[in-house]
Amino acid sequence: MTAHRRWAELLHAVSEPAAGVNSDALLRQALELGLEVAPETVGCSVTSIDGDEYRTPIYANDLALDLDRAQYQAGDGPCMAAAREHRNQHFYAAEDGERFPGFTEAALNRGVHSSISLPLTGTPQPAAINLYGSSRTTFDDERPQAVAGLLARCVSALLARPDSDVRPADPPVSTDEVDAAQTRARLVTSAEEVLMSRHQLSRSAALNRLIGRSRAENRSIFVIAQETIEDSTAAGVAS
Amino acid sequence: MTATDGISLEDGMRLSGMSYQELWLRHIAVSGTTGELELEAYVLGLLVPNDYQHNLIAQAINEYFLEQGQDHPVAYHDTANAE
Fold this sequence. Notes:
Strand order of the largest sheet of chain A: 2-1-5-4-3
Largest sheet of chain B: none
Number of strands of chain B: 0
Shape of chain A: elongated
Radius of gyration of chain B: 12 Å
Oligomer: heterodimer
Structural class of chain B: mainly alpha
Low-confidence stretches of chain B: none
Order of helices and strands of chain B: HHHH
Number of strands of chain A: 5
Shape of chain B: globular
Largest interface: A-B, 45 and 39 residues
Structural class of chain A: alpha+beta
Helix content of chain B: 40-55%
Low-confidence stretches of chain A: 163-170
Helix content of chain A: 40-55%
């Protein structure tokens, strides 16, 4: 199965939770996608805190489990810190040896030179997703960090299920902001419908008409949509 | 599928400095209905949008650049019938 297909399945399951879905299988699939966050990603796991105990409830491969356990045995590590402090942790073996001496040695012995750990949100216990890299720069670019962030939100949602009242925190988008966006959407949709009716276009083609004018005139699509509706109204009055 | 000249959705997002929540609101405003996580996956290339979805997202990002006095840097797909 392609990565696109696996991401599509994961996002569908997260956005439209359904009864009977195997959350464990989806979590495994999510962590396997974690191994593709960047070319040199060599491990992916989840650390959670259960009382005073740190544990790894799910992992993509043995290397990740070994490195998680090395942290628990050493008493600290970036994944534990991410779960405990609810903050992103970017670990560099070459520079963080004093902060996490036991873990750093274990990481270097296994050819791991960096990691990122992102806290999970809305899970029953404090938790973090961990990604291990075989080079110092595995996670330095913006893209792997963005993909890891998306993966963290998917895993958060899956771990909050099933039948749990705990849900990932709603995004801090206000109702007013959504209402304002929906008002503008009605303007664009109305303009599309004018064009669909007038020129026998599909919705996609009608959108392209609006976009085409926006580009040609370098003006906002909302202005173009408003004018399209006004022109239609004027034409209706004239006839 | 043909594409206009311009940068990718991902590069557009990076250049804009917008958050994905802001993009999601802008995407709703241009009549998009995609959820926030899926939208992010489209931008990052983890999912492949159809032309309609792509153009909605491109317009949402380009609206940001229009407000900054720039001219539609993000590329569209198959808008030839509109010009």
